[in-house]
Amino acid sequence: MFGYAGKILFVDLTNSVIKKEETEKYIADFLGGRGIATKIAYDMIPPGANALDPENALIFMTGPMTGAAPSSSRIDVVSLSPVTNMLGGSSAGGDFGTFLKFSGYDGIVIYGKSKEKVFLKICENDITFEDASKIWDKDVFESVDYMKEAGREMVEVATIGRGGANLIKMSGISFSKRSLASRGGLGAVMGSKNLKGIVVSGCKGIKVRNRDVLKKTNYEILRKLVESPSYEKYKTWHAKIAPSLLKARRPYFGDYEEEYWEDAEEAAKNAKEFFEKKVKIKSNSCFSCPLRCWAWIEYEGEEAPMVACQGTFSAITFILKIKEPELAWKIYLKMQREGLDIMSTVAVIAYASRLGKVKLGSEEILDFIDKIVNRVGEGDIFAEGIKKAAEYYGVPAVYVKGGMESWSSDIRPFRGISLAAAVTESGSISRAVHGFPESSYYTKPEKAKNVAKKIAGREDIAEPTIYEEKHKLVAHFENEHIIADSLGICDTPLLSVPEELWLKAFAAITGLNYSSEDLHYYAEKIRTLERLFNVRRGLNAKNDTLSERLFQSRFRSGPWKDVGIDREKFEELKKKYYELRGWDENGIPKKETLKKYGLEVE
Amino acid sequence: MRYIGDIMPYLIVHEDKCVGCHTCEMVCSLSHEGVINLNLSRIHVVGYKGEKFPIMCLQCEDAPCELVCPMEAIYKEGDIRYVDGEKCIRCKMCSLVCPIGGVIYDAINHKMLRCDLCGGDPQCAKYCPMEAIEVVEEVPERRKKGVRVLYGEED
After folding, report:
1. A295 and B50: CB-CB below 8 Å?
2. Whole-prediction pTM value?
3. Which domain holds residue B97?
4. Looking at the 3D structure of chain B, how many domains does it have?
5. Which residue range forms the structural domain that includes residue A488?
6. ipTM score of complex
7. Chain B interface, mutation test: which of A228, A232, A296, most B Cβ atoms within 10 Å?
8. What is the distance of C-alpha B150 from the center of its chain?
9. Which member of A170, A271, A398, B67 has the greatest number of CB atoms within 10 A?
């Protein structure tokens, strides 16, 4: 077998039993990565299970291209999400995925619950459960250092911080000190299993079908990436992202407030200066990627890696209304150390500020994070996520599908993105429409228009507030994300390099000759299976929605003055999306759709 | 094709440019061994926190690996050193004596691996997206002393 490592590891924590399955069993039907992970989740997680039950499975899966092509560092994590109690998923870059393949496994499936606090050490056939009691209440950075020493020199670590250990619903899984599979509260799933972390190393290589073609194609892909005009911009991304998001009209402020934050420009300017002048910054990349999206940041004796492209630092700046980047940096460090999903946590803090529990823009936020992470006092309520907190306090909050906190960008003026936030199974927009034309309409209008035209035949629909044809864009981008997550390629480069080059590299790696249509067929099939997972849990069109407050709020100032979401048009768009997907009016895949994708269930 | 000629190519590392993406290791093991395996790469990205850079054989003029070899298995073709697999007894003395880890033992295929500059067209330099590895024909005399400088035998 080429490209794939060949085996999937199944770890039963209840009985400390480890077994291996051939990856081959899944390849023809579900491709890899997110596809295979979804299939295993569908087969293993009982429809009646809750996310923090031992019956829930936590599935880490790499793709056939992980580690073998440029920008191929991805690993996908799928599980029942404790935030939404629906199918959850998140993906991460870094080096872990590739090292897992070097160890001989395409993926790891964790189920059951360990009696003791453990971490898993995997070195090819040598797999052991190690005592994690000493690091259970340590943060991510300390845990990574501890577990790295438990392995050999070249090891990679996946771990949870105190967030995951204390079953905080906004906790993610950290891959080394940087890359987080952040969304959907997967860290809490890991914590509920008494699993602190996973350490991998290995000397097995990734075998490829055609070395010479792969070398040539990889070179072409690298050149395309390096020669693209946006490549140079990545170098200064950390400094420029805050102003650029403002220009794109994307941030929201405080708790999804209707008034524009007057100090937004100043805050963005301060953040820019902070990265340009005050910190020591060293560009870095994930495995096999030339893009250097992240950097090692040092400031006043403290240091941490920071990914720019997801806009975590900007989310802290804008949503928590912080004018002093020094404070935003402290908050960033804290959340990163606790292993928290920054998007979700800032949304929860902003909501708490509306209840008068914490003051935005102040040092109080740091203490408030401590309260949440350690479940002290009312922190215990906020630790359950924004929806549960809103139910407790009876004050409406903003969230998207299933109670998932929104991401760093406002979704109200962006019709396609609001649709995705409601229909996407995980409720995670960054898993569906990252790089969407609406997002860059005000920064790169030409590119956004071209993309919209290519996909839906109309240039004008790249404009955010237009409802028409957005279902087509959403379906297309969801498919592209599924392809990226299933192959193990990062979505940004996947979208910016011609598809035929990726197909060529895929063929050279695996020996499988697929067309663009084939990949989209897989994507649609996987998308339908994701839907089926939730349908089986009793979900339907009613659940494909956003929180009430999002429909009611209207901007009173700023660039989006008087804009809000029109419920009727939103529902209409949803119906069109279902139709395009081959689902009925209730959002349930039709019989002929199931037949088309060979997913017939009894 | 092996490089035999009047001009000796050297690899120069610009460590400030490296972002630690491991592309050089991927293409090295792919070119030489046909698989992607960091353990079979002749170039290695090392680093601590954000600082990363690749290391590989420096092609020292007066090389300790060659001097220490009890079997005289290390030979030169042009200016590039190779290991004669027939003569080599895998004692790994060359690996031990090199202070930068320029020679590695491949435990999978039971042989010694060292940079052969891809016969004159180093793939790592070609693929490095950051241009952190550069092929040059002329280097300062001091660089030619290679690891002897590190040993303190040269100033």
Report:
1. yes
2. 0.96
3. 10-147
4. 1
5. 415-596
6. 0.91
7. A296
8. 16
9. A170
